[in-house]
Amino acid sequence: MAVKICMLFYFINALAFTAAEEPSCPVCSRYEYEEKLLERVLRNELALENTLKEIKETNAKVLSGLAELNEHRVTLMSALDKAKHDVQTIVQDYRREINISDISQDQSHRTPIVYFRARTPATTFTSGNGVVFSQVEVNEGQGYNKVTGKFAAPVTGVYIFSVQYCAAANKWAFLGIVQDDALLEASGHHSSSMAEGCVTLQVFTALSRGQNVWVKDTSPTDTKLYEQPGHRHTSFSGVLIHS
């Protein structure tokens, strides 16, 4: 019984070995099968080589594209840097021009220095006549004329004028500030018999260049003033505050 089992096992192995070596196709020989298998292997190898070649070509194209993109990026960054620099230069030039323009406008609109102050040693004036302040202390802008007693505006603008006068003891004094032929402001003052008193007259007015302002006696009779050198005196002053 054991011998039969061994012979059966041997027979099965022989059949399996024969089936493994011989092709399944009954019309094909062993060599034809190997030849076809070799052809299939060669075709697969060729296909693999072609695939590898395509992969290498694709990789080369990708690398070339990346290099080109990098060149474009470098070019773009350079262009952006140049554009940024150009914009900064334009902004700086614009600010510089604005500053120069502002300075020019500020200088062109700056109010010039115009002011004067003059005194008179006279103490008696005739009614209706102008008062000449012959002692000029300051005349910036050269607008005041000590001969005529009139101030001629050197520039158009707004001015302040002030007159101080002191009435003699127990006397009336009347003075007014005149622009051309129009009386701008006037006042009168009477001093007691015991002491001489002083008052101030002030006015704001707009003048065109060349217009005149002066002081005149507005009393119904002659005016008698009091002068005390170094202490009390009659004066006429003016200043340009805006042009």
From TrEMBL:
Cell compartment(s), UniProt: Secreted
Cellular component GO terms, alphabetical: extracellular region
A Pfam family reported for this protein in Swiss-Prot or TrEMBL: C1q
Species assigned in the record: Dreissena polymorpha
Keyword set, alphabetical order: Secreted, Signal
Residue intervals passing through the bilayer: none
Keyword Signal attributed: yes
Statement: the UniProt record of this protein carries the keyword Zinc: no
Domain C1q: 108-243
Protein name according to UniProt: C1q domain-containing protein
Matches recorded under InterPro entries: C1q_dom (IPR001073), Cerebellin_Synaptic_Org (IPR050822), Tumour_necrosis_fac-like_dom (IPR008983)
Signal peptide, first to last residue: 1-20
